[in-house]
């Protein structure tokens, strides 16, 4: 009996105090019943080793006590699908960002491809640990507040996407969002991206003052475009909001393209190369930028007209946005 008492005491220490006595009495009755059945079958009392084997069949005290405690999760079944989906988004975001980082190091920073990839892999491991740990902490906090269950109770079938609507590609959306975030971080000077760069030895290409003059408008436009990409990815049914944002960002981009084009000169070539060669490079680089601005402007005009046409021909409907 001493072994059974020790076993029951070990279970009791892991039970809620207000329920421990009743639960321990229930387990004791079950153990004694099993012991009597076993002794009747053998025709003799059980020895210590046989009692120990009987107790072992019931289970470890921790396992037995856990059956009588409220089920606890680090992340519960309601939130788990959203947790996995968020981890996938974070993983795709990290892969895209560090691919851009490695490519920019090779293209603009004179880095050796192998070293650039190795550095990106090292960075992505540390960032992945921080990112995934943050996601776990956030979902753990949400689980304790009951948010997942409340959120699921409020979902509306009306918010489901139309069958005929083209669904956003996950990788494409992740790339657009990651590229937008990376550009904003670089534009703010928070991630490395050389301001003076060239792959030609003895040549430096220096941005002209126009880029400083339009710093704030470019930042505002990129933030607006990032919001558009996020909504298109996560809330594709917000068609009116998407159309307005698309027209606004296209019009804003077109205005910026016009202002930039009026500068007529965007990068200045300098360095130790002969003066004639520097002049030719300066002319060629700025000519290429000029044509790039023209092409971007034409694309923005087409995009703006296309979205305005969609707004004009779309069926009237609710334009409000339901915030969960």
What gap, in angstroms, lies between the N and C termini?
58 Å
Query: What is the topology, as strand order, of the major beta sheet?
Result: 1-2
- The SSE string, one letter per element, is HHHHHHHHEHHHEH
How much of the sequence is in beta strands? under 5%
Shape: elongated
Uncertain runs: 193-199, 316-324
**What is the tally of beta strands?**
2
Indicate the radius of gyration in whole angstroms.
33 Å
Q: Please summarize the sheet with the most strands.
A: 2 strands, antiparallel
Structure description:
The protein is mainly alpha-helical and 324 residues long. Among the domains are: 65 residues, no CATH class; 124 residues, no CATH class. The chain is built from 12 helices and 2 strands, in the order ααααααααβαααβα. Strands 1-2 form a two-stranded antiparallel ribbon. α1 packs antiparallel against α2 and α8 runs antiparallel to α10. The C terminus is likely disordered.
Keywords:
324 residues; mainly alpha; 12 helices; 2 strands
List the helices and strands and how they pair.
Layout: H1 2-12, H2 20-42, H3 48-58, H4 61-66, H5 80-107, H6 113-145, H7 147-153, H8 170-187, E1 203-207, H9 210-213, H10 215-234, H11 239-262, E2 267-271, H12 275-313
Antiparallel strand pairs: 1-2
Helix pairs in contact: 1-2, 5-6, 5-8, 8-10, 10-11, 11-12
Briefly say what this structure is.
With about 325 residues, the protein is mostly helical.
